[in-house]
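Appendix C reproduces, verbatim, an entry submitted by the partner laboratory led by Prof. M.T., so that reviewers can inspect both the input and the predicted structure.
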Amino acid sequence: MSHIKQQTIAGQFTLEGVGIHSGDASRLTVKPASEGGIRFKRMDIDGNPEFPADLDFVQETDRGTNLGAGEVRIMTVEHIMGSLMASEVDHALIELSGNEIPILDGSFQPFCNAITAVGLRKLSSNAEVLHISRNLDIECDSGATYRVSPGINLQISAQIDFAHSAIGRQSGVFKINPNTFGSKIAAARTFGFESDVEYLRARGLARGASLENVIVLGDTGVINGQLRFKDEFLRHKVGDLLGDLALIGKRIRANISCEKPGHEGNIKMARFLRDRVKSND
């Protein structure tokens, strides 16, 4: 049984920017809530439709995790969701004007900084915690593999492998809590390849991507400045994984080992966990 109390943020904050894929301006305001988990509300649509940040609302996982209900869509939720989960925020209302979460500098840091600035408020109910009691293995058509095993905290071991000389094979082990996420993962930015830009934009993606919000890789290396970590690519993938896991809607106690993680595999693994493991409240 968990005796950890649920939390929300102690005040509201607002962030503005462009969506990395839509290229459209967007504005989000995150407000405290005492129940309902994390919820999204579209302020720019008549009736202000609202729905939960939940696996059942995932519509797409191509270059980001997109949620939707009917015709209402919210793109690229993984950075705000990963930041809220790492900060141990159980309930919050995210009001969004626009169809995509702003990319800001491409990392989780602006969201984490905003959460830290307003602080957290404990609630009366115990946190819902998903505990793993046996090993679970998930394989994906994309080549991604995941193993989830029992753990007293959340720890992610990840490995990526890209043919590009600036990335190559990177691996690491990360304990996930507010302090370690803030110092070791939050600043890691999303990345992309210069050679993919025309292809992506022809598909309606990466229209808001720029040298200010994406690590851009040319033929020989990074073309827009220095990396924040030697393995920044790996660390960003770990943050994305956490953002996708957050759609389970519970705190997680497990050791997760993954190879070649991506949004499609992350969501498949998260659904696998949700459907096979009971939470201990």
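Helices lie at 78-86, 109-118, 178-184, 197-202, 232-245, 263-276. Additional entries are available on request from the coordinating office.
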